[in-house]
């Protein structure tokens, strides 16, 4: 893996070669990663994996048309060939009036801020194995756990660099450390599986592996002997580890590309009151040690904190440059890049701000409801907002979580669900999209 300075130099060199080959404009991106992971199962070493990759990609614009190409060879001869091929491809491509680099006057300027994303801590395979064993041992120690799918620990580091022909050049590195455990409770056809995991930028921020393992074991045991639930309309409470998917559907619908294609259930709702006024959803790409933090976006634009939903009101779309041009607007610093192809829209560290009541208080008045801990399938229509997903979890009876239930479906429409949503105060930030426990009244349950 190159250093940030070396990665910038390679990107700048590739862009310069493209200009010499005849490109009107262009940008180059370098993406590299290296990771090591260890998995154990039933106390024995099962897998040790080491992976490394690096890729440089070039996007060029010639006469209103564009082309993208990439390579894993970073040598001078390879970059020469990459540039000439990309320009030749662009000359054969159809023109796209919306394609192009980000506005020059909006480019990130100045030094890259230190978001403390890169941890110098190195984990040896022995260290990773010890962490994985501790997590699995703690999970298997929970009464009722009968088998294990394994404990794992990993550590890695990645680097992203971008250079454009109109003046931007930047790079940053980020590390990651993670621990997980997955175990089985019960016997035969009554077996139930569950898991727990944590991932952080810095090793010091990880929860103890024994805590992660114990959580996995306790979750699996709680799911034993699930019953069935009757069909009807009831309040549904979403556990935080699945509640964040509701915000994920919102983010997808806020994409400028979806709006430009008129393929979003939020069409014509910019500025609308989608949620109760107590709901605020924020996006902070500059969060220190954030799992999705980044000092600049995939087009070289500065990133900044923003409220996506402010006191229940939608504040606008998430746009890369192409979508912004289609909508007659300006990009919002939400472009992301892969190793090849055009940018696409992604948010960063998204948080639905916590409410003022505990989860117990949020459920206290529910005589008969459902608490969802797992969602199954992809039954969401991004155009209409219709929502229908398989689920499992627990009944709520007289304000208390009761017996486990499985094989039912929760359904509604996301616009109605957002309007009826209330939040508890148990927010934990570690997933990238984070919410507290969420309650949605009036959802349809399909069971027995």
UniProtKB/TrEMBL annotation:
It holds the Pfam family PmbA_TldD_2nd. Residues 27-90 form the Metalloprotease TldD/E N-terminal domain. It comes from Novosphingobium aromaticivorans (strain ATCC 700278 / DSM 12444 / CCUG 56034 / CIP 105152 / NBRC 16084 / F199). Residues 121-224 form the Metalloprotease TldD/E central domain. This is Peptidase U62, modulator of DNA gyrase. GO terms for cellular component: cytosol. GO terms for molecular function: metallopeptidase activity. Belongs to the peptidase U62 family. Residues 231-447 form the Metalloprotease TldD/E C-terminal domain. GO terms for biological process: proteolysis.
